[in-house]
Amino acid sequence: MSIYVCPHCGKKSFNPVTKAMAGQLNSHGKPCKECGRLCVNGKAATAFNAVFALICFVLVVLTYLKAPDIDWLYPIEKRVVLGLILAIFIVPRIANAFFFKMEPAIRIELKR
Ligand SMILES: [Zn+2]
């Protein structure tokens, strides 16, 4: 089954761009074009994002602490840190665009 299928109505109403914009379980979600109900990227996407952000954060701290002792790293320290911070924001969106299944947005259902 396609990962761009709406979990509410089963129609293939998302594409990589709209799926990337839908966010994860903790976000508001994007409405399906067919049925209008909100969808987000599911548990696997949320877990991946959390793990990925944690790894990048650890690498940022390590780079900051260790760069003065590592000859090849020291001159590019700022660029490495900047790249890692950008990756925290960009890589999960790319992953959301091309991997993981959509799930119903749970935040809305909790309010009802
Ligand atoms: Zn739908």
Describe the protein's architecture and organization.
It is a single chain. This protein has 112 residues and is mostly helical. The chain has one domain. The protein contains 4 helices and 3 strands. Strands 1-2-3 form a 3-stranded antiparallel sheet. Strand 1 and strand 2 form a beta hairpin. It is elongated. The mean pLDDT is 93. The site of zinc ion has 9 residues, from loops. The site of zinc ion (ZN) has 9 residues, from loops.
Per-chain topology:
Elements lengths: L15 H6 L8 E2 L6 E4 L1 H24 L10 H22 L3 E3 L1 H6 L1
Antiparallel strand pairs: 1-2, 2-3
The structure holds zinc ion.
Please supply descriptive tags for the structure shown above:
binds zinc ion, 112 residues, mainly alpha, 4 helices
Gist of the model:
This protein has one domain. Helices cover 52% and strands 8% of the residues.
Percent of residues in helices comes to 40-55%
What ligands does this structure carry? Answer: zinc ion
The secondary structure category is mainly alpha
What's the structural domain tally?
Answer: 1
Strand content: 5-15%
Count of individual helical segments: 4
Counting DSSP E segments of at least 2 residues, the number of strands comes to 3
Between the first and last Cα atoms, what is the distance in angstroms? 30 Å
**General form:** elongated
Radius of gyration: 18 Å
